[in-house]
Structure formats: structure tokens, C-alpha cells
Amino acid sequence: MPKWLCAIVIGMLQLSSAAGASVDSVFSAGNSHYEARHYDSAIAAYELILAIDRESAPLHFNLGNAYFRAGDLGHAILHYAKAERLDPTDADIRANLDFARSRVAVQVDGVQLNPVRAVLGSLVGGFRLDRLGWISSVLFLLLLGGLAYRLGFRGRARWLMPAIYVTVVMFVTAAALTTIKYRLDYLIPRAVIVTNDAPVSTGPSDQAETELLAAAGMMVEIVNDQAGWYEIQLENARRGWIRQDLVAVI
After folding, report:
1. What does R_g of the chain's alpha carbons equal in angstroms?
2. Of 37, 42, 110, 149, which sits 20 to 30 A from 54 (CA to CA)?
3. What is the pLDDT of residues 90-101, one digit of tens each?
């Protein structure tokens, strides 16, 4: 975030604390600024909410829209991606993310990083992590209840054992999907390049040879980090090093 924008955010934070303004009122103010096409002011209001650790899919979605209108494609894609991670069921988020990514100056074509991961991602892409977790928990409790009734109270109903078997299969499936979703969305670090003509080098040094100039909005995976540098992997499996201040982690 630019220094002048940080100053605005800090000022708004102090003002909101003094006046007892609610998060909802700041969010509404951001929406009003956006509708008036005061995109920098809208961004400052939305970032204020993030500064007090009140994250949500609608907040990131609105931030993405404001950054996009302000001409900052890198941060727009960053917040669309964060919104999608929080609510992958929202078609508007997906549509805006896809559209924004289509506007990136450099398009990387090539092989998929991991075809198996792509298949797994398609299986869990439409699910929210918290809902998968709740489904797994409910199925686990049902399984425990069925086993307790069968073993503790010696239930003999014909439907009991088939129901237990079905519950076992459903629980294992839900638990596996939850694990996959968590791994893909949180354990594999991803980032967005937020600066145009960002140099990707052969090593973690300003003296290393520049392999390519990346465009704002390109999404990458973080493979390693070292002293202010990230080793990244592009969508065509090409690797290189980039300064950490040129990217933002999703």
C-alpha cells in the first residue's frame, strides 16, 4: 500500500476509534466512495477494516473491484483470489477473477504444474473449507453414535450395520476432501506479483541475471524464501527468484 494511503488508513482508524464507528459504517462508507468513483478513498476504507483483522469474502471482493477500477491489476487479482478462497461458491468472485487475470499483460502458457493437483482442485473447488469441516464433524459424531448404539446397547436392527458402513464411507470421503482443500488453499503458498516489469532472477541477489520481467497480476507458487527473496514457480513450471516486496502472498 502506498505511504499516502497508509496515512489515510491510520487517520481513519484513529477517527473511527474516537467516534466509535462500527465496521459496518466503515464498510458502507467504502461502498459510497466506490459508487462515487472515489476509488482511492474506497480502498482506504476497506483496508481500514482489514487493518483491524475483520476479513471476509465480500470485503476482499469489494477491495478487488476498487483496485481494478483504480488501475491496480496486481492488488485487484490478489483480493479476488483471497475472496475466492473464503467463498469459492460465489460466481461473481470467480467471474471477476477470471476477467482480471485475462487482462494481465503477460500470459503464461504451458504445462500444468501438477495435473493430479488440478484434478483434486476441481473436486474441492466448489466447496468452502469450513463447510467441509462441519460435514466431516457431523458424520464423525453420527458414526460414533451408531457404533455406541451397536456395541454399547447391542442394537440389532437390520438397518444399523448398513447405515454404519455408509456413514464410514461418507466420513472418510468428507475427511479426505477437507484435507485436500486445506492443503491446496493454505499449505501450498501462492502469491500475486503486484508490480509491473518485476524482474525474476536466476538467484536471490540483485547481481543475479534477470530471466524475465513479470507482469502485475501474475499468480505464482512460492517454493522457497531467503533473505528478502522468494523462489517462485510460474504456471508453466519455470522457476526464478523475485524480491519479496514485489509480490503479495494470497
Report:
1. 23
2. 37
3. 999 999 999 999
